[in-house]
Amino acid sequence: MIIRPAHEDDAAGIAGVLHDLVKAGKRTKQADPEFALTHYIAHPDKIECHVAEDDAGHIMGFQSLKWAEIGNEYGTPAGWAMIGTHISPKAARRGIGKALFASTLQAAHTSGVPAIEAFIGEANVEGQAYYEAMGFADYRRADGAICKALHIR
């Protein structure tokens, strides 16, 4: 497995991961390459977006870290970072999330992020367990979500 920063030409691969999640009933938002490009790879608030590739170069998952601006859609405190982790169900249980988070955490340290918030649906038990395993703790509840935070400094 290779963990590396996402590039514009990864939009189709990231969209493929999102599409796999939609097919599995784990996602309802957009899953097309344009969305992947504008929302993750080239988002103006992006700190970093990493992909996990298999040996053949197929994207198995990705993790996005963005600055939380005032009035962001999740209510994350301004100046913190927001994280999103997306792993194809076809690639689950291979340590991809842990590997991605090591790179994301390094990017957070380098960028001076004070804390990271994960906005996780209440029904997403797997997502909640993942973030707890990465050191996040319950922080608040909002709009059918459990928000977990990791304080870095």
Description:
The protein is an alpha+beta fold. It is 31% helix and 31% strand. It contains 4 helices and 7 strands. The chain has helices at 11-23, 33-41, 96-111, 125-133, and strands at residues 2-5, 46-53, 59-67, 81-87, 115-121, 137-142, 145-151. A 7-stranded mixed β-sheet has the order 1-2-3-4-5-7-6, with helices on both faces. A hairpin with a 2-residue loop joins strand 6 (137-142) and strand 7. The N and C termini lie far apart (30 Å). The mean pLDDT is 93.
Element-level helix/strand string? EHHEEEHEHEE
- In what order do the strands lie side by side in the largest sheet? 1-2-3-4-5-7-6
Provide the gyration radius in Å.
Answer: 14 Å
The general outline is globular
Mean pLDDT: 93
Report helical residue fraction: 25-40%
SS-based structural class?
Answer: alpha+beta
Give a short account of the largest sheet.
Answer: 7 strands, mixed
Number of DSSP-assigned strands: 7
- The termini sit apart by 30 Å
Number of helices: 4
